[in-house]
Every structure is written in C-alpha cells, then in structure tokens.
From TrEMBL:
Pfam families the record matches: OCD_Mu_crystall (PF02423)
InterPro entries tied to this protein: NAD(P)-bd_dom_sf, ODC_Mu_crystall, ODC_N
UniProt superkingdom: Bacteria
Protein name as it appears in the record: Delta(1)-pyrroline-2-carboxylate reductase family protein
Length: 315
C-alpha cells in the first residue's frame, strides 16, 4: 500500500504541498510564540556562502531539547521572473535523542510560510488596526503567503496589490477573489497607503518601493530585504517611524542585516525585538515598522509543528 509521503532513508520526504499541510498559519504563529518563550532553543549564526554570479548558499541550524534541524537553501536572484524559483533547498529534521532523521521538509515552502507566520504574530501583537485593508507590495511567493496568513489569522477582507509584474498582480488578485476578498490592483502603492493600515512589502528588494508617508495607525511588515545591500523602504519612511512610532526587528541579528534600516541611518542597537514584544507588549506609539530578516529559529518552529512530540516518541 502506497503512502502519500515518500521515504528518504529513514526520513519522510515531503513535497511542497505536503509541507504546507503540516504548517497552517495560525498554529505556526502560535508555535513561533512558544519557541520565543522556550529557554532550551539554541540558534547559532547562519552561514552564508556567496557564489559566482550573485547566488548564495545558506546553512541555518537550530535545536531545542527534542529536535535538531538545519535548513540548507540556495538564493539565486537571477531566477526572478524565470520558471526557476529564487529559493530552493530543504529543511532536515532530526531526533535529538537518537540522531535519526525524522522528516525532510520543502525549504521554499517552509521559508514562505514561517516568514508570513512571523509577520502574522507581529501584526497580532503590534498592529494598531488588524482588520485591514491590506496593501501587498510584491506579488510573488511572499505576497501570496502573507495574504493567506493575514486572511486566516486576522480576518482581512480587502486587499490592494502592487507589483512590477502585471501577470503576478493578476494572479494574486484572482487568488484573493477566490478566497472571497475584495481585491484591487494598483500601480501606485504610495497612493494605496491612504486606504490600507496593514502593509506587507515582499519584493526582490533591489530598489525602494515605499517611502511613506505613514499615519499613526499603519503597520508595515518589511520582509524582502535581508542583507545590508538590499532595501524596499526609503530613508524618510524608516526615519519617520523611528522618530514618531515603533520599529521592531525580528531578532538581534537584524542589527547587521536590515538593509532598509541600515541605509536609512537608523540606530540599530536599542531596537525592540519580536521576542521582547512577546514577553511584554510595548507602549503603542505611532506607526509600527516590523523588519524581518529571517532566523533559523523560525524554521525550527516549523519543524516542531511538523514533527510533534507524538511523532518522535518523546514524553
């Protein structure tokens, strides 16, 4: 009798669809919050090796008291706009007690869903208004993942979509309408800001796509830029939120990775982290900018959800 999962040695190799089935957004956001409260989590710095031609190899390990995992992915910006994805690879999950492989998750699926779930958790904790409408700038994988996450986790009913690709914009609008949302395309995301207190930017981060102005009820989750050379947000927007609102980074590693903030000259040493906001909600002050750069801990949260204690025989 065939199973739906393929066997890879003693591990279960999951397809992208099977990986997604293990990682519903709301439970994944809850698992991320639980991980931030877990003193047994250990996450060393990720290793990044640049390749000729502009690509990179990322090796991102982490563990808790039950599971160990490593995400091994490639990032190839030159694939943007082609049939090949820009992110490829796998997440290998191990049993800490025995060293046995438990599952091999699809790396791009984990990356998309855990990134959107982190933004969802940040919006649940920090957004002045969580009902939307939602503006998505960048209609690729992250745009769709964030749309699904914000619909499932916040109940968003209206979305505006801006992208350089008319085909990608239309595909995301069609998806939104299939979900029952009111959906609009726009060539002017600055203008759409007036209608949308929730904002997600998930572009290739090769140039500025938003530079404000923001009102006091805006929440912006910026996820596209994860190196000092990348940025989506302009200096005026970043400086305005730093001076008149609240800037939160996903982890302390953003101090040397968040290109949007670094290029805007925002002081990085005293910024709030998501873990601090989970422990104690900060005072609400003006617009909120949540800058996400990525962390292997988020992948470990996905591994924990995909490999519950009952699957490893842990007590």
């Amino acid at each position: 009798m065939q199973t739906t999962d393929q066997q890879a040695g003693d591990a279960i190799l999951l397809s992208p669809a099977q990986t997604a089935n293990y990682l519903p957004f709301l439970p994944l956001a809850q698992e991320i919050e639980a991980l931030l409260r877990d003193p047994g989590v250990r996450v060393p710095a990720r290793q990044v090796m640049g390749w000729p031609g502009g690509g990179s190899l990322f090796v991102m390990p982490a563990h808790d008291d039950r599971l160990g995992m490593s995400k091994v992915i490639t990032f190839t910006p030159a694939n943007a706009g082609s049939p090949r994805p820009t992110i490829q690879g796998d997440v290998l999950v191990f049993d800490i007690r025995t060293g046995a492989r438990l599952r091999v998750l699809d790396g791009p699926t984990v990356t998309a869903r855990r990134t959107a779930a982190v933004s969802l958790l940040a919006a649940q904790r920090l957004a002045p208004r969580t009902d939307g409408p939602l503006l998505i700038v960048g209609a690729g994988v992250q745009g769709r993942a964030h749309l699904d996450a914000f619909v499932q986790g916040l109940g968003v009913q209206e979305v505006w979509v801006a992208s350089r690709s008319a085909r990608s914009t239309q595909a995301l609008l069609d998806h939104a309408r299939r979900l029952g949302l009111t959906a609009h395309g726009t060539d002017d995301p600055q203008q759409a800001l007036r209608h949308c207190p929730l904002v997600v930017t998930g572009t290739p981060a090769q140039h500025v796509v938003l530079d404000g102005p923001l009102s006091a009820d805006h929440f912006v989750a910026a996820v596209g830029a994860f190196t000092p050379a990348m940025r989506e947000l302009g200096p005026a927007l970043c400086q305005h939120v730093f001076e008149h609102g609240t800037v939160v980074v996903d982890t302390p590693d953003a101090q040397h990775e968040a290109g949007d903030l670094l290029q805007a000259g925002v002081p990085m040493t005293d910024l709030l982290t998501l873990a601090q906001c989970v422990q104690a909600a900060p005072p609400r002050r003006g617009p909120v900018l949540f800058k996400s750069c990525g962390w292997a801990g988020w992948d470990l949260a996905a591994a924990r959800l995909a490999c519950p204690a009952s699957a490893t025989g842990s007590r």
